[in-house]
Amino acid sequence: MTMSEFQPWWFADALAQENATSRPSLNDTITADVCIVGGGYTGLWTAIQLKQKQPELKVVLIEKGLCGSGASGRNGGCVLTLAPKFLTLKRLFGEAEAIKIVQASEAAVYAIRDFCDQYQIEAQLRIDGALYTSTNNAQSGAMDTVVDALSRARCNSWNPLAPSEVQKMAGSKRHLEGHFSPIAGSVHPALLVRGLVRAAESLGVIIYENTPMRRLHYGQPASVITQNGKVSAGQVVLAMNAWMASQFRQFARSIAIVSSDMIITEPCPELLDELGLQHGAAVCDSRIFVHYYRTTCDGRLMLGKGGNTFAFGGKMRAEFDQPSRYAPQLKQSLREFFPRLASVPIASSWNGASDRSVTGLPFFGLLDNQPNICYGFGYSGNGVSTCYLGGQILSSMVLKEKDGWGQCGLVSGPLPARANPLVGQYAGTQRDSPQRSLRRPRKKTERDRLLFGTICSGSGESG
Ligand SMILES: Cc1cc2nc3c(=O)[nH]c(=O)nc-3n(C[C@H](O)[C@H](O)[C@H](O)COP(=O)(O)OP(=O)(O)OC[C@H]3O[C@@H](n4cnc5c(N)ncnc54)[C@H](O)[C@@H]3O)c2cc1C
């Protein structure tokens, strides 16, 4: 098995639990009905759903490292839905489509649970809900507008909690107010992605690891060229997430690559019990650069913060794959949220690259209008369950289903912020809030264009 020296905590933990024999790399010329590039949640859910729909398809997946070594094996594991982005969805695609997408993102949470049950994937999934809070007055009311809109559209799962209930559930007096939805939770992200690898193989997907795509030649069939091999495929699915913009320059301005930094404690189950943190709910505050945390099944606390490091033009920085240099600040945040945990040792810190789109929503399309090459990325830190929907969309696109998910609003390519006047202000927020859009009248730079549309306003975006 080829591994970089550094492994983020979750991924190392998942590999340690495997009988880790590496999958082969591709050293040959082969054919496939579908070649998927990228072995994270998106690529794997697409492969799985294709095989579930048409078992006779020959589906090949190539991954440049180990499956799950990208965002899927290192994220916060907060299982969230697109409901808090309802206003953006509605502005971009209309109310009916927005409701459909929100409901699909909620259904994905249960579909992942059912799939894990069916394929015996022990991913420590706990559907214990999500709590979106404010930790200062500036964040207050961040959820109100979107919750009102969801209620009017009769698809609201979020309820306000009394401050005392918020503090009890969040285990911290730092939280002033909050909304709770039961349709969310947390998972061990790397156990999930590695479980999906095994499930995909059991369905007949052929997987090559340590096999980066070097070039892609258009045509029918299209050719995916690797270091020592080639896949001639009727259809190609590009599921490369943050790497899309470096390999396909047309997307260089469609996403910003934004870090999320994490720390995880050593087990401290008694202290978590004392704090009332026996549950697996995801807790996110409403800071501009959001803090989020969740517990683990073995009694650790993981805390993350988005937005410390940015890269533009598709550049992938080395520090996206290293221990976090912001670990001291994260430890300080941990102490502020939980003074009782101040002396608990930190087991590990790490960092990862998230693909922030201009709208804060994932987008899908055909690469350069090639009818047999589709892509999907831009999850903007909200991909753990949304990638299941990504798999529904991409598998539907591959199969050219007439009324399937391949026709949904998200299949619009990268939308500019100006697709709607309001979106230019604060699209893609997890908590679409007009109050916030009034606050930033200044001229926008390139960094602003990408980020104020997404993470800067995106309180609650976990990654
Ligand atoms: C640190 C961090 C924390 C996050 N926290 C959360 C969270 O708590 N909740 C949430 O919902 N979302 C979170 N996210 C977002 C979520 O992890 C992603 O949206 C999701 O994992 C995306 O899955 P993916 O399969 O599209 O991408 P990835 O998992 O990144 O998969 C893409 C794969 O493509 C491979 N690849 C790239 N180029 C090539 C090539 N040329 N040839 C072959 N293979 C290639 C990569 O190696 C990689 O394995 C977080 C993200 C990060 C980085």
Query: Per DSSP, what share of the residues sits in E-state strands of 2 or more residues?
Result: 15-25%
CATH C-level of the domain at 127-188 and 258-355: Alpha Beta
Tell me which oligomeric state these chains represent: single chain
CATH topology of the domain at 127-188 and 258-355: D-Amino Acid Oxidase, Chain A, domain 2
- Secondary-structure-based class equals alpha/beta
Mean pLDDT: 88
CATH second-level architecture of the domain at 127-188 and 258-355: 2-Layer Sandwich
Outline the secondary-structure elements.
Elements: H1 9-16, E1 29-37, H2 41-53, E2 59-62, E3 78-79, H3 86-93, H4 95-118, E4 130-134, H5 144-152, E5 159-161, H6 163-170, E6 177-181, E7 185-186, H7 189-202, E8 206-208, E9 213-217, E10 222-226, E11 230-238, H8 244-247, E12 255-265, H9 269-275, E13 282-284, E14 291-295, E15 301-311, H10 327-337, E16 346-357, E17 363-366, E18 373-377, H11 386-398, H12 423-426, H13 434-437, H14 446-451
Parallel strand pairs: 1-2, 1-11, 2-8, 4-13, 11-18
Antiparallel strand pairs: 3-7, 4-6, 5-6, 9-10, 10-11, 12-15, 12-16, 13-14, 14-15, 17-18
Helix pairs in contact: 1-7, 2-7, 2-11, 3-4
The structure holds flavin-adenine dinucleotide (FAD).
